[in-house]
Sequence to fold (249 residues):
Amino acid sequence: MSIALVTGASKGIGAACARALSEAGHRVALVSRDSSALQAVADSLPGESLVVPADLLDPVAIDAAFARVEEELGAVEILVLNAGASMSAPLVRTTDDDWQRMLDLNLTAPFRCLRRALPAMTSAGFGRVVVIASVAAKIGSPRIAAYTASKHGVLGLVRTAAAEVARTGVTVNAVCPGYVDTPMTDQSVAAISAGTGRSESEARQILAEMQPIGRLVTVVEVASAVMLCVDNAAVNGQGLNVDGGTVHS
Fold:
């Protein structure tokens, strides 16, 4: 089976993707800044894994992470780019630092990872790249201008990369979740609670009701969409919505 690298693999969607890949028989390199959390995920996987602590905001660290995987496992054949962050503020109160932080982690880091991974994939004639984007890559919503811009940008990156490599045996796709039951959503719940005076359970229900299915998406459902992109060579250049029907495409 293939060698996979998952960023943001210490929790939430990234950990679920790592498990799905491991259960499918792939060897999985786990990347994030939290080495102890990565080790806990690694210990829970059924197959071979490699813990690779790295700060993806550092381009040198990105190259070093890939080099370590190549040395210990081999060239990366499946790349799941999940690391990211969100923030909420009205556009007029979004600072330059807020803006830059969203672009750096949600757009520039995936670009650097793609640039590092694609040559080996195209040379081998096989590769799968899946970026965890967001429904915010498809629509605009109040109070998340910087996050939305970064996710629109990464979907454009995916589409362009997919077009460039389409005849090489490599595919590049995005999965665009709605509100998922993850630690990142917990932060959104806390922010809504603090801003509205509602309880956190009420705030969580507000997010659930924003999706036609009336609940949060699970990390397993997101990981399942990632595996579709891994397993199906005809899916390329897509932004697959996993949002309970929030955005129709």
